Amino acid sequence: MGWWRQLLLGLWAVLPTWAGPELLNICMNAKPHKPEPSPEDKLYEECIPWKHNACCTADTSWEAHLDVALLYNFSLVHCGLMMPGCQKHFLQAICFYECSPNLGPWIQQTDPHGQAERILDAPLCQEDCEEWWADCRTSYTCKSNWLGGWTWSRGEWLDTPTQNLLEPAASQHTQCLLTTFALRKRGFEFGCCPVRKANQ
């Protein structure tokens, strides 16, 4: 079983005792999330695990997989080739964010008028982070923090910053927790998880 699915199963098992029923089976109040989770039988690739109960639509899941994603007007391959194994981790994270109906414990309001929400400190196990790092160590990025410093015009991403050199992700930081491109700012919190048994 893939690490992402194990994380989801772990969250499914732990959430009812942590959060209570009012924080489960809800969608974020944010574009392009649906108002309520429901089945979506045509979700695309990395979003399929949520097809039975999703906060995303089939269109959203398809847009997340485009090279220049319509979803965020941003390309994961903004500085050249990103290896498919590396890109898969980012797509899984996007699908988790867009599709999961069980993010209630980590939803935070970003707009004082209640019009926008995001997740903050959702758990990401160290072993999953290490796998992400291993798959991304030869891929390239222009920035260690993807949330700021880009050239934007009319809401569209135009180019990469000229002051940063192209660097392999593995050379930017020495620890796996730092080489996943500022995931902490994308709403993830790193922590310890139970050790998996060899037959899992």
From TrEMBL:
Keywords: Disulfide bond, Signal. Residues 26-159 form the Folate receptor-like domain. It comes from the Eukaryota. The keyword Disulfide bond applies. Residues 1-19 form the signal peptide. The keyword Membrane does not apply. Belongs to the folate receptor family. This is Folate receptor-like domain-containing protein. It comes from Sus scrofa (Pig). The lineage of its organism: Eukaryota, Metazoa, Chordata, Craniata, Vertebrata.
